[in-house]
Amino acid sequence: MQATDKRVGIIHAYPSKYLINTLKKVGCKIVLFVPDISGLSLNDIEAAIAVPLHDQDTAIAKVLAYHQEKPFDALLPIYEGATAITAKLAAHIGLRGAKISAAQASRNKYFAYTCWSQNNIPVPITVPIYDPRQGWQDIEAHIGYPAIIKLADSMNSQGVIKVNSRNEYFNAVEHLLKMLHRPVDLDRQIDRNRLAYGASEIKIIAQQYCPGVEVGVDCIVAKNSYQIFGVFEKAPATGPYFAESMSISPTSLTPAQLQQVSQIAVDAVMALSCDQITAAHVEIRFTQDGPKVLEAGLRPGGAYTVAAVEYMTGINPYLELLNVLLGNNLNNVIPNTKAVLYGGIVIPKSGYLSRVSGLEIFAQITEILDVQILNVVGDRVYSLPESAQPHFAYYLVGGASRNEVLQKHKLIQESIQLEITDIAQVA
Prior knowledge:
The chain is built from 14 helices and 19 strands. The termini are far apart. Helix 3 (83-93) runs antiparallel to helix 4 and helix 4 packs across helix 5 (109-118). It is an alpha+beta fold and 427 residues long. 44% of the residues are buried. The protein has an eight-stranded antiparallel sheet, with helices on both faces.
């Protein structure tokens, strides 16, 4: 794809170098709207504009002011916390993009649930918690235990907690309320997504707990067409918290199950977006009653998902989304026999990182596509549910088969050991 001289605007809280380099390679003029421009290399982009993402009116005004001087060819929804504002701006300017109501629904899981249930999309039972002090009554009346309580517009595992009893509900909801009461300019290590949640009337929901295999389906849906980029299976997680340690493709699903979840994902996106163009990352869990949609973000998958898709297919979802937003047709994904896995070293408890061993494993394994070490000895680190960043490191590995990348993942997880000193011992 060549996008030379196309001006692309992106509203993001923490844009990655991978995103910037991807667009730079095809000649895009990149304009970033971010809360903090320090640390960004201005050599790689046309401009970086500081905007308060929690102040939607000011953010919109700054994007429109830039567009008046230098018009955008496309606005890319990449950061989940900005999907709704991106859709609103694209519609105002007259650019292609997701339907505003769809982007807003994807940011509020109860609105999405309502839409899906009305359109016969399989979903777990979900109820709004209007009064957090009495939410246990809603759970016991409509769902039963175990249940999941989560922020309606949560963006990661930090805002999702499994509860098995009324007492566990009280403890969990107290934590969610603390998250909602934090200031938007809190330390990003504790909660880098605070600016993106708590804006809607329904702030907390309860949901039926779905045991079983969980997958993420990444796709683009446009008028009369769609493209599945990949289906990634997550590591088994039973709660109470759900820090992600692995996603892998190919999955353990049968071809029939893959077809089923792919169609359910597309149907779920279509129910929200009708025939307007949108990328989506749809999370689905298999249950005894079949697969059910947990949530859908109307943007390409986060973390290493885009890089994993590019490794497997040669197609970059960022560029494919830009391609269709510029009015071009979707490209065909050509299947191949590669396997890919992105994983994370989960921080087991909060405290001070006093020792790390085993990092040499990354130099010993073939097809380590990328590694990101997030902490050094001496750092204060946080585990769930205290932090939105409960990982010491991320890595992306490729290989010829599912078994090969699983073995690499197992070796990495077993090799890297973290020693964490309790905060009380340091004090």
